[in-house]
Every structure is written in structure tokens, then in C-alpha cells.
Write a structure and sequence with these properties.
With 442 residues, the protein is of the alpha/beta class. The protein has two domains: 275 residues, no CATH class; 60 residues, no CATH class. It has eleven helices and 21 strands. The strands form two sheets. Strands 2, 3, 4, 7, 9, 11, 13, 15, 17, 19 and 21 form an eleven-stranded mixed sheet that branches. Strands 1, 5, 6, 8, 10, 12, 14, 16, 18 and 20 form a ten-stranded mixed sheet that branches. α8 crosses α9, α9 packs antiparallel against α10 and α9 crosses α11. The mean pLDDT is 92.
């Protein structure tokens, strides 16, 4: 890593250290220092690192982003809220403006007695002991994770006590509107035994603004817990978005992940889950649309550590212009994880000659009584299907848009939150050149 880049973040930490939430808490101060030391030792990854072989962060290294402090969350109404908040079906909305909780823009509905939904910054100031088990002595999974652990300033803390069911989805909306700032967001979801919740994690920004969102979301799912997590990345096209979603699952728990990536100049999503109990289930679905010179990277890892686990993974990408996508999906079946059933696929559609995809599905199997398979495809629109539509009087441009829509919609229709599914459908249609004809022909 460039020495100037390392010094920039070390200097910036010194600038904001006393302003970070929980700055006076001993265990948190130690954790931040250890994380910063790890970042200083590692630096940003390079293409020599296997997990970053196809993704360069050189452009990010050239930017002198400064950590945004709480005063960047300007009070008052904001014109982007109506554009990005979902329909009334979502019962709890937490809005974060420039990386910090904005209660005046948020609307938390009535929560059941066993649910707590608050700002992480407020919790670190008022009751840090409640999050200590989920933050202290953390081992970050990447250099960006270490940077996040050092600088984390705000995010959501959702704690569900045993048996609690959160009927209405939670919408965590992160809006970025200022150039030059880094937002180190940390979200923590704790689901005790037998709990259920749906969370929508949504990032949006202004197209002509350059900023850096460095995000870590940690999910702890106890026995028989069920967490349905949606990640919608709709950043401005000048943004850098690097995120990790890391789940740990106990016996018979279920984790559903839907990662949708539309925006940002550079987007990286690491999504992992570890089966620490028997009978766990995980479903990882994803869709990425990229054009121009966008770069989008998904790295997933499902670690089957115990028997009778089931995982399903289905990712699709549509690329045009000179966009570049990376997909690396790793499934590990540890010794003793017998009766594992794992399936993974990744399909990519290239709409231009200059678009590029690097896809690498991986299986590491150390048990013998398992059922695992995977596959990946990269190609153009099917000429046979295109000919079929044109032979029925459909214009070629409309026919192409119909086929792209059908390809991407395969992932969108898997999402059970109706208002989110509708929003994604609208975004998809807006990206198609013949959008006005799609609804007539479907």
C-alpha cells in the first residue's frame, strides 16, 4: 500500500478519535486501536491478494476521503427521502444521513416487547455493555473490515429477544450527499432463539458526489432464528462502496440474503455465513447491473461446519459498456459436515463487446456423504430466442429489452417484500432502452 495512504488514515483517525461514539469506553478504545494497527500492517489489498485479483482499489487509494463526523447529518427535511423510502408496508424506517443517524427523518413504528431497534452510536454512548459481546475482540476479515472496526461511527443495532417476531420489515436507509467524506457504517443484528425479522439495508447517493461507504454488517442467528436480509446498493455513480455482510448461524437457523447492486463507480460486497450448528439453511441471491466503466465485485463464502446443512446460491449479472464484474462464490464443507446439500450458480449477460466478467465458483469438500454442485455461464443474448420474438412482429430493440428483463427478473421475483420487489422492478425497467413497451408485452 502507498505509505501516504496509510498515513492519511492514521492521521484522520487521530483527528476524529475523541469524537467517535464510546470514545471513553476502555474495551472499545482497545478494540479500535487493535483494528487500526491491523490496518496499518495490512494496508489496502492489491491484485497480488488472491481475493482481490480482479479488483483494483488504486482509484480509491488516490482519494483523500475524511471520516464524516456527526455534524454532517444536517437537520431538517431532505429531498431524497421521498425518492428512496419504501411503501407503508415497511413498518420501521431508520435514516442515516452522511453516515449518521437522523431521527428527524426516521419513523420507527410500534415494536414488540422483545425487540430493540436503535442507533449504534446512541448505544455506544448510553449502554456500551449491551453491544460489547458483538464488537469486542473482533477479528476483521479484511483490511477494510479493520478500517471499519477502528472508525465505526454509527449504524443500526437490532436485538430480538427469544421468541420475538418482527412482523413489519425494517428499512435502514443510508443517504450520502457530500463529496470528500468516508462513512464507516456498522450494523449489528442479534437474533436470539426462535426469532424472525426482515431487514432492508439500502444505500443511496447523489450521482455527482464522490464519497466512500465502508460498511460491515454482522448477523448473529441463534437456534431456530430466521433472518431475511436485503441489501440494495443504489449509490451515486461517483461513489466507492466496500461492504461485508457476515453471519454466524446456530442450530436449525435460516439466513436469506438478497444482494442487489446497481450503483457506485466501484462496488465490492463480501457476504459470508458460517454454520455453527446442525441443520442450518442459507440462501444467497444476487443481481448486479453495471454499465459505463462501473466495477462490481461479489465474493461469497458459505462455511458448512456442521452436519445436515443446506445452502442455495443464485447470482445473475447484466453488463454493458466497459463495465467489469467479478463473482467468486466459495462453498466449504468441513470434515464431519455430513449430509450437506449445497447448490451454487452464477449467470452473466454481456450486452457489449467491451463488458467483462470474471466468475469463479468454488467447492472445497472434506466430507464424503454430501451433495454439492455448482456452475457458471457468461454469454450474450440467445439469438434463437431473439429470432423467435422478432418472428412474431416484435421490434429487435424491444425484443432485446424483453430478454434482458426476463433474465434479471429471475432474481427480483425471489424477493418476498412486495414494496422492495416493485422498487427493483422500476429500477430495472428504467435501465432498459425500450422500457415503455415491456409492460405491454409481458
Amino acid at each position: 500500500m502507498n505509505i501516504d495512504v496509510r498515513n492519511h488514515y492514521l492521521t484522520d483517525f487521530a483527528r476524529v478519535a475523541d469524537l467517535l461514539p464510546g470514545a471513553g469506553v476502555p474495551w472499545l478504545a482497545r478494540s479500535r486501536k487493535n483494528a487500526l494497527d491491523r490496518f496499518a500492517q495490512r494496508g489496502f489489498p492489491t491484485r497480488k491478494d488472491e481475493d482481490w485479483k480482479y479488483t483494483s482499489v488504486a482509484a480509491l487509494e488516490k482519494m483523500d476521503f475524511r471520516a464524516a463526523t456527526a455534524d454532517r447529518a444536517h437537520a431538517g427535511a431532505h429531498p431524497l427521502i421521498d425518492q428512496f423510502v419504501l411503501a407503508s408496508e415497511v413498518g420501521h424506517v431508520l435514516v442515516f444521513h452522511n453516515g449518521h443517524y437522523a431521527p428527524w427523518l426516521s419513523a420507527i413504528g410500534t415494536l414488540p416487547a422483545g425487540a430493540r431497534l436503535v442507533s449504534l452510536a446512541d448505544t455506544l454512548e448510553a449502554a456500551p455493555e449491551t453491544v460489547e459481546p458483538y464488537l469486542a475482540d473482533e477479528e476483521p476479515q479484511s483490511a477494510f473490515g479493520a478500517l471499519n472496526a477502528a472508525f465505526m461511527a454509527d449504524g443500526a443495532f437490532l436485538h430480538l429477544k427469544r421468541g420475538t417476531v418482527l412482523e413489519a420489515p425494517v428499512h435502514l436507509l443510508f443517504i450520502s450527499t457530500e463529496s470528500g467524506y468516508a462513512h464507516h457504517v456498522r450494523n449489528v443484528i442479534v437474533a436470539e432463539e426462535g426469532t424472525q425479522a426482515t431487514v432492508i439495508e439500502h444505500y443511496a447517493g447523489v450521482d455527482d458526489v464522490a464519497y466512500f461507504n465502508n460498511v460491515v454488517t454482522r448477523i448473529f442467528a441463534a437456534d431456530n432464528a430466521a433472518i431475511e436480509h436485503h441489501k440494495l446498493q443504489q449509490e451515486g455513480f461517483g461513489a466507492f462502496h466496500v461492504a461485508g455482510i457476515h453471519a454466524v448461524q446456530q442450530r436449525d437457523s435460516r439466513f436469506d440474503s438478497h444482494s442487489i447492486s446497481f450503483g457506485a463507480a466501484l462496488a465490492r460486497n463480501d457476504i459470508t455465513t458460517a454454520f455453527d450448528g446442525r441443520g442450518c439453511e442459507a440462501t444467497l441471491n444476487g443481481l448486479y447491473l453495471a454499465g459505463g466503466t462501473q466495477h462490481v465485485d461479489h465474493h461469497t463464502r458459505i462455511d458448512h461446519r456442521q452436519p445436515n446443512g443446506t445452502s442455495r446460491e443464485h447470482y445473475r449479472g447484466v453488463l454493458e459498456g466497459r463495465a467489469h464484474a467479478v463473482f467468486n462464490g466459495k462453498v466449504i464443507v468441513q470434515p464431519g459436515a455430513q449430509k450437506t446439500n449445497a447448490f451454487q450458480d452464477n449467470h452473466n449477460l454481456l450486452l457489449s463487446r467491451d463488458a467483462e466478467v470474471d466468475t469463479k465458483p468454488e467447492l472445497e469438500i472434506y466430507a464424503d456423504d454430501v451433495k454439492c454442485n455448482h456452475g457458471a455461464t457468461v454469454g450474450q443474448l440467445d439469438e434463437t430466442q431473439l429470432f423467435y420474438l422478432r418472428s412474431r412482429g416484435i421490434d429487435e430493440a424491444v425484443a432485446r429489452s424483453l430478454l434482458v428483463h426476463a433474465f434479471a427478473h429471475d432474481v427480483i421475483e425471489r424477493i418476498r417484500v412486495a414494496s422492495l420487489r416493485t422498487r427493483l422492478e422500476q429500477i430495472l425497467l428504467a435501465r432498459l432502452p425500450q422500457k415503455e413497451h415491456i409492460g405491454e408485452l409481458r
